Amino acid sequence: MSNENNDMQKELAELVSRHTDREGPQVTAISALSFSRYSSPHCHDGVVAPYIINQPSIYIVVQGIKDVIFGGEHFRYGLPNYLVSSMNLPIIAEVLEASNENPNLSLKIGFTNHQILELLNDDEIKRNSRKIKRGLNIAKLDESLLDAILRLVRLLDKPGDITILAPLFVKEILYKVLSSEYGDSLKQIVIDNSPTVSIQNAIQHIVNHYQEALRVEELAKIANMSVPSFFRHFKEITIMSPIQFQKQLRLQEARRLLITSTIDVAEAAYLVGYESTTQFIREYSRTFEFSPRKDLKRMKNMERE
């Protein structure tokens, strides 16, 4: 790693630290840019932060390390890597390194479908129309992209420049991401005849109706695919079957309800669509490594630390 890279990373961490005034996620004066700050290692997404990635985005940990669990796989990242996500995905994210002296600091830059489409030409649309790419990936943060991100974050110290320059810098960042090894995962979500768009429609249906009984035949119809084709494409993009995807949504919503309200385990299970509390506890424990009651106690102890 070059000295220039080290200097840019250090400056980026200092800027994020200075512009975060509390624990957890927080917005900035730049609409596409948000930060998060955690001073202790723990699992937070699904408890105090949104548990679904809900737009095409990149995530960069500028200080510390995070571990994202997606479809049973672990995606550990920190500098010099970043996370690329293309669509609605249920994740569990854990802060692995953090203290009061060295908090875990990260930033997110979100993109709209319109911004992505604006940067594609006809040839790229044709090339990507039938591609299938996983919706979550770890990419290498090169010096050019790091420089563009740093220039965007620096605008927070020059608020008068944000209106004019921030859209240009975001466009530059997006162009560099689209040109990277995982850029196709973003390109394919805006191409009308791409299988990914069809799967995205089915994913949105699951997100909107996760409490209800799931019928793969109905989802395949929404995606305008045969059941075998739908099942194969869905798993290629999300690493999960539709049933597993729904289960992740249910369990993470139940976890949020248990942490943020006074309902008991049986009620939480019922509200997210489980008919059997025993099955809910078994699947919750398998996913989060603790029973609901033990997990709730553990998370509340972390909040007091």
UniProtKB/TrEMBL annotation:
<protein>
    <submittedName>
        <fullName>AraC family transcriptional regulator</fullName>
    </submittedName>
</protein>
